[in-house]
Design brief:
CATH architecture of the largest domain: 3-Layer(aba) Sandwich
Number of strands: 18
Number of domains: 2
Strand content: 15-25%
CATH class of the largest domain: Alpha Beta
Strand order of the largest sheet: 1-2-6-3-7-17
Bound molecules: ligand BES, manganese (II) ion
Number of helices: 13
Shape: elongated
Distance between the termini: 25 Å
Length: 452
């Protein structure tokens, strides 16, 4: 099947040749608002899966759309030449909701280029991640020396609820020696990264009730507790004075050896002047190896609709990021126990799990890692990848680790410090995207003969 091995120079030319078509295909994908969240139109996620399947099929792979009760994933396969390894290429085609469209400088679902960046929801996270697989396969064509399985899931941004079942159902088809996950970030423009750990996540909704119904705040306030004040007091117990998580039973991972500068994080996050950091330890550890707790939303009367009445019931969505090594089931129990124990004034409380995913630690010592490092270094003109932790979550990594314990896993991606994934004005750096594509083509080209 292999016609001949391509040289690095030939692959560079082949990838460059593919970039304009890839750009057009990426733009078409961005125009499909495939959002797996329940309140969005899932016909768009189906349409997105069909578009992805057409691209994967176009690379000469046997392609099918699969589901296991959730949103559709795409599987494409091309068998390995005799004796060659098989590489699984993962990405996700669903995207985050756009949020308040008024905060975008252009339509989130109409891609536009400004200053070398392509703007649009999913332009980076993770439609460019899946296009990197397509470009690498197109560039290699029939010279592809390994077997490949492309797996593009359709509900990563909504917690990958049916992923474990999909991997179980299609286990034999997905079996591979190396799994390349392009859903993470690079260190900086011009500086690539390999992700070595990701935090896990547990979201929950706490509901507090103090009254059967709202009553006059003057007649009863002072002796009768309102649910919103009770909730606020409860939420205030989640952190200590220093801003560290105060919930017992959440683990802390191994300290990071890499440092992240406070100024960089302040600028990237867009912290308002005068706002201080929370927590203790290095900034890298606070973001990558320690747990965090945030309140993401509250249901209570809005200021406009509030009268002089005691609030009978209030709810908060609380999100925990879990240190590498922690367990989401144990972490949810710890969080629920804390909320129940600290709920003030005998108020009634219920805590419901609202999705989660396990953290992961990635072993970067396997034989395919040297090939990966050298491919990345070549694509970035001699700059070696930095090994980073990531504060965000890709539940798929631990799901793949559990289903395929013998496979090596490489986690890379197209995001950079200016991507603004999940926020308004998400964008992709087109120059860095071309390097990601080249690195992947070089990796696939070299994977038949690992140098590690
Ligand atoms: N691509 C991100 C993960 C990520 C974030 C990698 C930052 C590198 C830097 C991924 O698509 C994501 O956002 N995942 C969700 C998972 C959740 C819904 C279970 C997240 O972290 O919120
Ligand atoms: Mn992603």
């Amino acid at each position: 099947m292999t016609t001949k091995d391509l040289t690095e120079a030939e692959l560079r030319t082949a990838v460059e040749r593919e970039m304009s078509r890839a750009r057009a295909d990426l733009e078409d994908l961005v125009r499909i608002p495939g959002i797996a969240f329940p309140e969005f139109d899932h016909a768009e996620v189906d349409r997105s899966a069909e578009a992805v399947a057409a691209l994967v099929h176009g690379c000469g792979l046997d392609t099918q759309i699969v589901r296991a009760g959730g949103r559709p994933a795409v599987i494409g396969r091309r068998p390995a030449p005799p004796g060659a390894p098989t590489v699984l290429l993962y990405a996700h085609h669903d995207v985050q909701p756009p949020g308040d469209e008024a905060l975008w400088d252009s339509d989130p679902f109409e891609p536009v280029e400004r200053d070398g960046r392509l703007y649009g929801r999913g332009a980076a996270d993770d439609k460019a991640g899946l296009m990197a697989h397509v470009v690498a396969l197109r560039a290699l064509g029939d010279a592809l020396p390994v077997g490949v399985v492309v797996f593009v899931e359709g509900e990563e941004e909504y917690g990958s609820a049916s992923l474990a079942e999909l991997l179980r159902l299609h286990h034999d088809k997905l079996r591979s020696d190396l799994i390349v996950i392009t859903d993470s970030a690079n260190w900086d423009i011009g500086v690539p990264a390999l992700t070595t750990s990701l935090r896990g996540i547990v979201n929950c909704v706490a509901e507090i009730r103090t009254l059967h119904a709202a009553v006059h705040s003057g007649m009863f306030g002072g002796a009768v507790p309102d649910a919103l004040t009770a909730l606020v007091r409860l939420l205030a117990t989640l952190h200590d004075e220093a801003g560290d998580v105060a919930v017992e039973g959440l683990e802390t991972g191994r300290e990071s050896t890499l440092e992240l500068s406070a100024d960089r994080v302040r600028a990237e996050a867009g912290m308002v002047d005068g706002v201080r950091f929370t927590g203790t330890g290095s900034i890298a550890d606070r973001l990558w190896t320690k747990p965090s707790l945030s309140v993401l939303g509250i249901d209570a009367p809005s200021v406009l609709e509030s009268g002089n009445a005691l609030v009978p019931v209030a709810r908060a969505k609380i999100s925990a990021r879990l240190a590498p090594g922690d367990d989401p089931v144990k972490a949810f129990a710890a969080l629920r126990d804390h909320l129940e124990a600290y709920c003030p004034w005998g108020a009634a409380i219920s805590v419901d799990l609202d999705g989660g995913g396990a953290p992961c630690v990635i072993d970067t010592t396997g034989p395919h890692y040297e090939t990966t490092r050298s491919a990345i270094r070549a694509a970035w003109d001699g700059v070696a990848p930095v090994e980073i932790g990531v504060g965000g979550s890709i539940p798929a990594v631990s799901t793949f680790q559990a289903e395929f314990p013998d496979a090596e896993i490489v986690v890379t991606g197209v995001e950079d410090p200016h991507t603004r994934a999940h926020g308004p004005n998400e964008s992709l750096h087109l120059g860095e995207f071309a390097r990601v594509c080249l690195a992947e083509a070089l990796l696939l080209n070299g994977a038949a003969r690992p140098i590690g």
